[in-house]
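Proteins fold reproducibly. Look at a concrete instance:
___
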Amino acid sequence: MFNDIEQAAPTACMREEIAMKLYMNAAACSLSPHIVCRELGLDIELVEVDRKTHRTSDGRDYLAINGNGYVPALMLDDGKVLTEGPAIAQFLADSVPQGAAMLPEVGNLRRNEVQSYLNFISAELHKPMVLLFEPAYASVHERIRAQVSKRLSWLSGRFAGPYLTGEAFTVADAYLFVCLNWSPWTEINLKQWPALHGFMARVAARPKVREALRAEDLEAFDADGVYFAPNAYLASSDWTGVPVQP
């Protein structure tokens, strides 16, 4: 999402039973499984990927890890690699007993509800919003933005509680938070949907989400403290917002 960001230093959560590497870019969609790891207390090493060279911060050719070249990718301690953020998030939640809070067990309809939101966010928000960063699609940006706004209007009326499916913060909420964090750069004003703006504030206040933001050197820059960008980006851009420490 952002260019010219600083390399994230490898960091770890508390749990030691599962050693994994998460290949990521700061504030990109890889922040979603990173948040899930933090929430679940899973051991994770962050490995930054250079978008231009596809070299990793530990000296590898990222294209040999994920031939598509984009993040995230999750490498397990046996060398197996899982790609695609929603699949990674579900794997992480299923890997430990406490993960049922973020993704209910198989056979529970709430699991399918969470998966439905994961699919919706991926298809209807994530990919269209990415196109709004691409100059090659400038001629259709207004049409894309209108379609995304339509989806956000629908989504804003779907909250079953403080989070999408109720009281529990799920893997779908982590994914939604990351995608909505791109709103200032896509010229989408979330304040027209109070439910979504309030959701951003609630998620940003979660202690484990704060840990993930700090680990990726992300800083809040808007007056409400709900949007985050890499410090290096803020320092090198002409963005005029006053940073708010998370």
Notes: The domain at 21-99 is CATH 3.40.30.10 (Glutaredoxin). The chain has two domains: 21-99, 103-227. The helical segments are 31-40, 85-94, 109-131, 141-156, 171-180, 194-204, 207-215, 231-236.
